[in-house]
Structures are given as structure tokens and as C-alpha cells.
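Memo to structure team: turn this sequence into C-alpha cells by end of day. - J.P.
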Amino acid sequence: MKYKSIYGASVIALVTSFSVNAMDKSWWESPYIGVDAEVRRMDFKGGFGDNILQHHSPQSNIYAGLKFNDYVGIEAGYEATTTRTRTATLTTCDFAAGTPIPVGMSPIIFKSKLKIKGPHVDLVGFYTIDQRYPLQVLGAIGVSFVKGTVERRTLQAAGVTMSMNRTLSENRALLRLTAGLEYMFGEHLGARGTIGWVNTGKMVIYANDNVQSIYVPEIKPKDSTIYGLGILWRF
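Reply from structure team:
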């Protein structure tokens, strides 16, 4: 897929650059790895997921980076949410993933789950607030290669038990911005707190399961806000 090719090329360029210059440490300060525990807040447009999906998802972020100097670095990582499930009852005049609920199927019960995952590449800037303390402000701009997957199961319609599944998904390269604070406890171990924004409002997670229907279900997220706290290790 196109977004995987872009990410692969970015990682290869980073690895190649590091390999070529590995014998000359004058151009870089320190490589590092880290892991964050995060919470993603992602709302949805009315009738396109807001009433059938969870809006908060815990997630993890693992990353590796390289500081070229005390001010600039580059990171590559991977984020993935836990799979959140929500059961919702809708009636006539409601919309489920952009699809109106007909009178003959009201009330209808859906059980839906959402998964967001994918790699990211970021250019990171660092600023030391006070040279006496090992605390830096960080800001990053990058690309998040997001895969969104939704599974919507119809449990009951007009009092009749049933089991009808729809699968929706989309891959998209999206703008990603991050700000935060980084504190080093010593030469190697540090902690980081961040708040991020991802332009998931550009996504349309659509049905691609080849099920024939009058309407094609669509999930339309709004932009995501991501809160993170984690540890890192500098080599």
C-alpha cells in the first residue's frame, strides 16, 4: 500500500544515514528508545459514528529516535489503540454510520468496535528551559500512517434476534503534531509527557466487505487529541 511504502522509505533512509555515519559521532548526539501509555480522544460527525462508537481509546506508542544535536532529532514509532466496544440502540430517524434506520427495523441494536493503529515518522525539536536542570520542551511535526477499522454487528432489529456483520476500514497518511516535556533522571533514563493532534478528520472509514446494500456505511471521525506519558532510554 502507498502509505506503507512512504513509511518504509523513511525508515530505510534513517537506517542508511545512521549506518553510513556510524563511525563519525560528530553529527549526532544520542539514539534513544521509548514507550508511552496514551489516551486518544476522537469524536465523530453526527450520524457517522458518534452514536455507535466509543470516543476514548487507551493506546500504546513505541518509538526510536536519534538526536542530531541538543536541538533537533528524528523519531519513528508505532501506535495502536485497544479495541473498544459499544452497544447502542437506535430508532427511526437515527443514522448508523450514515445509514438511516428504516421503520421496519426499529428499534435496532448494534454492537460496534473500533481499532486505530499505524506507524509514524516525526521531526522533533528540543529546547532547554534552564541549563541547570535536565528538562526540555519538545515539539514535533510528522506523518501518521493510520489504519482505522470498524466492525459493526447488528444484534437485533424490530425485536428479532439476528447477526449481521459489516466491516469498514481505511488507510490514510495524516498530519501529526506533538508538544511536550522531557525530563532526564540521569544519563540514560528519562520521562516524557506529551499532547498530540492527528488530522483524522480527513479520514472516511468506509465499508469494503462487498456486502450488497442500498447504503454504504461510512464512519467520519473528527481530529484526534492524544495524551501520553512514558519513559525513554538514551544510549
